[in-house]
Amino acid sequence: MGILYIVRPTQLVVVFLHLIGMIVASAGVAGVSVGILTALLDMDTPTGLLYVLSWCGSLVLMGLTVGAVVLTGRRGVSIPILLWLLSMATVTLPREFLPELWANWIYPWTPLQFLEKGIRSLLYVDQSMIPGSTLLALGITLALGLVLLAAGMLKPVGKKEVAQHN
Fold it and tell me: Which residues span the membrane (predicted)?
């Protein structure tokens, strides 16, 4: 009986500001990363498609991070950090070069591998479009982040926390 489900108007404003901040910040991150990549690579790169893919990828990872933090508090930061650490060790090598345990159990769960596949495809395979499987995987991961964000808004609030906010 001591648990209430409360969505305060201020929570909706905060979530809206989180979403706007994620969109703007991810656009900036994508612009800087594509700018650096284009300046360093001495090849014909599809800058527009790389920007779109980088923007989607950084938005997805920010959504996952913000959703985990809103749902679980500061402890939620450990989830994206763990995924980032596992991904950084994984995406630098093709899946065939990884140990069997890593390739079969860890690699499929790292969101950065989809971004890496998309960038590799754009740069080296087909420079005309972003792979559909990459966009689908990034969309699913973004949906997961938004579900975490919504669940964080609707999580039970005890009487003690309600009294503190009133």
Answer: 12-37, 49-70, 77-94, 130-151
Dihedral pair phi/psi, residue 3, rounded to 5°: -115, 130
Instruction: Give how many domains the chain has, as a whole number.
Output: 1
pLDDT at residue 76 in the model: 81
Residue 166 in domain: no
Residue whose pair of structure tokens reads 């108007």 in the numeric block: 9
The pLDDT tens digits of the residues spanning 55-93 come to: 988 898 888 888 888 888 888 888 888 888 888 877 778
pTM above 0.85, yes or no: no
Domain interval for residue 38: 3-161
Contact (Cβ atoms closer than 8 angstroms) between residue 70 and residue 76: yes
Asked if pLDDT for residue 5 goes beyond 60, the answer is no
Q: Which residues contact 6 (CB under 8 A, 6 or more apart)?
A: 157, 162
What is the pLDDT averaged over residues 105-130? 80
**Cβ proximity of 157 and 73 under 8 Å:** no
Is 144 among the domain residues?
yes
* Cα dist from 154 to 62, 120, 159, whole Å: 20, 39, 15
Half-sphere exposure of 141 (CA within 13 A, CB side): 27
